[in-house]
């Protein structure tokens, strides 16, 4: 299969030609036509500084479509919000709670700012991954801040209302501030996403953006929504930048006009998800089909599994060890690609597994 790497794409240009890249979390699909038109139209007009508070119509749209309430502030991206929250609500040496395995910038935001990672592993049950609420209760006394991810990256778990309600009870009891990364919220399948803030409005900062659902990672923008005092405290630790005018135009067009594109894309992703789940069963890898995101999380019998697959299968996956200690036999696979690319990658991975 000959697919030349795109030199303008991190995903396709990082590894040598011939390696199939199913790693970094963006989609191989073109953006929705209404988004492309909105970017082109905005580029024809004023590209100077926007108002510091950003596009007020976009703010109203975000709050209306998510059902979130409170203050909304734009940010350069969700990862910036993670770093800002750690700086705003904890001091060096203090502990910060999070669930592992977890998107690597969660851990980096804690570690690089000289805080202590308080890792509460997800429980792996016969039905899939679940919050370890007892473990969270045991650790909660040692922190003021919980970094949360919902839908969860890398497992794709969409938490139930019962779990979210129980988490809210623990947070209130221990005066925890919860920063909830809900970037993948529009990318769910059978189970709808319910914001954590519905259960804990007074102590939750919700981070969101269009980058994953609408494939706009190269136009970085995000937002934080929550109680004004908490949002203002976070803003003091964010970069002093203006919201990107092209990113705001793209986000507004996504919310107003890209619904049909998103529904079609979710159908493509669901088909890929189901194909990956069937393949994992065939080859005997530990896997729970994700309820959201376009990311698949596998347990393998191989130490340093991602390195093994890169060498033996020429498929680039995310190393499990980047998502927390003890996960080096796991890998994360991004299935937001074309069926022929996915089929070739799965074929190569299966052949490599035969060597084990």
Automatic annotation (TrEMBL):
Gene3D superfamilies given in the database record: Aspartate Aminotransferase, domain 1, Type I PLP-dependent aspartate aminotransferase-like (Major domain)
EC number: 4.4.1.13
Domain Aminotransferase class I/classII large: 26-349
Keyword Lyase: yes
Cofactor: pyridoxal 5'-phosphate
Record InterPro entries: Aminotransferase_I/II_large (IPR004839), Class-II_PLP-Dep_Aminotrans (IPR051798), PyrdxlP-dep_Trfase (IPR015424), PyrdxlP-dep_Trfase_major (IPR015421), PyrdxlP-dep_Trfase_small (IPR015422)
Superkingdom assignment: Bacteria
GO MF: cysteine-S-conjugate beta-lyase activity; pyridoxal phosphate binding; transaminase activity
The entry's keywords: Aminotransferase, Lyase, Pyridoxal phosphate, Transferase
Family affiliation: Belongs to the class-II pyridoxal-phosphate-dependent aminotransferase family. MalY/PatB cystathionine beta-lyase subfamily.
Name listed for the protein in its UniProt record: cysteine-S-conjugate beta-lyase
